[in-house]
Amino acid sequence: MQQKVLDGRYELDHKIGEGGMARVYSGRDLRLNRRVAIKIPHRHMSGDPDFLSRFRHEAQAAAILGHPNIVDVYDVGQDGDIHYIIMEYVEGTDLKTVINREAPLSAARAVEIAEQIARGLSAAHKAGMVHRDIKPQNVIVTSDGQARITDFGIAKSHLSTALTETGVSFGTVDYISPEQAQGRPATPQSDIYALGVVLYEMLTATLPFKGDSAVAVAMKHVTEEPTPPRRINPQIPVQLEALILRAIDKDPARRPRSALEFSQLLTGYAQVFQQETQVNPALGNERPAQRGQDNPPPQRQNGGNGGNGATGRINIPPPRHTPARAPRQEGLGCGIFLVGMLILAGVLGVVLLFGTGTLNGIFGSLNGGTRPTSAIIQPSDPVPTNEPSTTPEHRVSVPALVGISDGAAQDQLLKLQLVPAPQGEHSSTISTGIVISQTVPSGDLREPGTPVTYTVSLGPNLVTVPDVTKARSEIAQSQLTALGLQVTVIEEPSTSLDVGFVIAQSPSADLRIAQGDTVTIHVSQGDVVRFPDVIGKSRAEAETILAATPGITLTFVDEQGRDRLTDFDSYAPGQVVSAQIQDGSGLHNGDLVPRGSRIILGVRAAEH
Question: Region 548-570: what's the mean pLDDT?
Answer without folding.
Answer: 92
